Amino acid sequence: MIAPAHAGHLATLRALIREGAAEGSFDRELAQDSEETKLFFANLRQALVTGYFVIEDARGVLSRRAVPGYVYWPDDRNELSQPVGFGLFRQFESGYELWLTGVYSTWRRSGHGRSMLAALLATPAGRLAWVVRVSQGSHSGDAMGRLLADHGFAPVRETASTRWFLRHDAPDELRDRLQRAQVIARTMH
Q1: At residue 11, does pLDDT exceed 60?
Q2: What is the CATH number of the domain that holds 42?
């Protein structure tokens, strides 16, 4: 079961993101207590309150992007249960990217990733989620690739750090742009 994420879920999202960063699923710096990490989590809190995240592009230009988010619980949860997973989408000009997603390591290999991904992709943002990036250094990267394939996503681009997946019904213009895109070093913002 999923529900919209809100600021009260920040501690859970922070713990899941830090766990994923330590495993290589996200920027490893997110597992540390740096000034950039503090800014990222402050921005994430703001996104959970307002629905918008401040994004810095490769040129250093700041803009706001819609970031709908959801938290996930197993179906048999009780009222005191904390979420065991989450998914955040990030808007771009022609749809959404499934931007960040994770399940606590203790809940993996039990079908929760599959259930959560199906629920996330059934949301309004999920129905317009054309792109997913998976870290090459992630312990869960291959499993995520298989789950994405079950939902019509296929790899379309690979860099040393990232494998890009595109949904089969994505706009042709987006497919062409992704395949031709120049590789630019990415920052956490």
Answers
A1: yes
A2: 3.40.630
CA angle in degrees (0–180, nearest 5) for 186-143-14: 50
Percent of the chain with pLDDT over 90: 47
Look up the domain containing 20 and give its range. Answer: 2-131
Q: Is residue 81 part of a domain?
A: yes
**Degrees (nearest 5) of the Cα angle 23, 133, 115?**
75
| Residues 174, 94 contacting (CB under 8 angstroms) | yes
- Determine the Cα angle at 133 with ends 174 and 106, to 5°: 150
Our count of domains for the chain comes to 1
Q: How many CB atoms sit inside 10 A of residue 68's CB? A: 20
Q: Is residue 92 part of a domain?
A: yes
* Cα distance between the two ends of the chain: 29
> Residue 182's pLDDT is what?
58
Arithmetic mean of pLDDT, 155-181: 88
For residue 157, pLDDT beyond 80: yes
Question: How far apart are the C-alpha atoms of 154 and 132, rounded to whole Å?
Answer: 10
The reply to whether 37 falls in a domain is: yes
Looking at the predicted structure, is the pLDDT value of residue 115 above 80?
yes
pLDDT in tens, 49-68: 999 988 887 788 888 899 99
Q: What is the 3-state secondary structure (H, E, C) of 123-145?
A: CHHHHCEEEEEEECCCCCHHHHH
171, part of any domain: no
